[in-house]
């Protein structure tokens, strides 16, 4: 179990860890030398608890409660800050720049910019391209990604979205190798965007997990299971 099991069993071991050690440490901002990392944490812990201890006596917002079986640390809630008018104006401008769009329209626009659906080839007839195949592919990808099945996307009056067409596309075009190829085209296109370059080198994606820096660090902190 997560609570009582050995956490080391879920870690990379041996050659597999050595192969991933440098990029993982770089992505997380940790030194590759474990002893150096522990020393840095020890110094940080020592400096932090001394700083907290020096401010504890004069801080009226923090106190120790002795109501229960064990003493507990209580921190008063922060007062609400009123939002300035400039923030409301900024929110309005951002909303105008990011109008609500349908997810299917967004996927079709990305395909128009990148042409990633051209990476999906027929399982036996690699050169065959049906009319409006990109629409069928985007619909099937949407159904798979959202785990909603093909039914909500079927439109009998649109040839590219009939039940027969979508089922045929799913069976003949969606394969591991075509998905990898389409993803590679998207990644290559993203690397040309100036904004993406400002966000980093692409070594860590949002799907790799989200790490939040909190105002108060504690040795008793843990992952948020939610």
TrEMBL record:
InterPro entries to which the protein is assigned, alphabetical: Tn3_Tnp_DDE_dom
Domain Tn3 transposase DDE: 105-226
Domain of life from the UniProt record: Bacteria
GO molecular function: transposase activity
Annotated GO biological process: DNA transposition
Membrane-crossing residue ranges in chain numbering: none
Pfam family, one: DDE_Tnp_Tn3
Name the UniProt record assigns to this protein: Transposase
């Amino acid at each position: 179990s997560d609570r009582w099991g050995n956490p080391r069993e879920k870690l990379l071991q041996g050659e597999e860890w050595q192969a991933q050690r440098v990029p993982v440490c770089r992505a997380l901002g940790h030194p590759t030398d474990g002893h150096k990392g522990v020393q840095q944490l020890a110094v940080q812990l020592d400096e932090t608890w001394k700083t907290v201890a020096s401010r504890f006596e004069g801080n009226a917002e923090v106190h120790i409660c002795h109501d229960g079986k064990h003493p507990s640390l209580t921190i008063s809630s922060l007062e609400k800050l009123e939002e300035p008018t400039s923030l409301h104006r900024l929110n309005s401008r951002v909303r105008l720049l990011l109008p609500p769009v349908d997810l299917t329209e967004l996927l079709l626009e990305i395909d128009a910019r990148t042409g990633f659906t051209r990476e999906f080839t027929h399982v036996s007839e690699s050169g065959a391209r049906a009319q409006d195949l990109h629409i069928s592919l985007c619909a099937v990808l949407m159904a798979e990604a959202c785990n909603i099945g093909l039914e909500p996307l079927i439109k009998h009056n649109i040839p590219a979205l009939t039940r027969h067409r979508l089922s045929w596309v799913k069976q003949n075009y969606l394969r591991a190798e075509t998905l990898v190829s389409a993803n590679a085209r998207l990644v290559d296109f993203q690397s040309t965007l100036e904004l993406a370059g400002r966000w980093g080198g692409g070594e860590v994606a949002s799907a790799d997990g989200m790490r939040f820096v909190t105002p108060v660090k504690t040795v008793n902190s843990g992952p948020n299971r939610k």
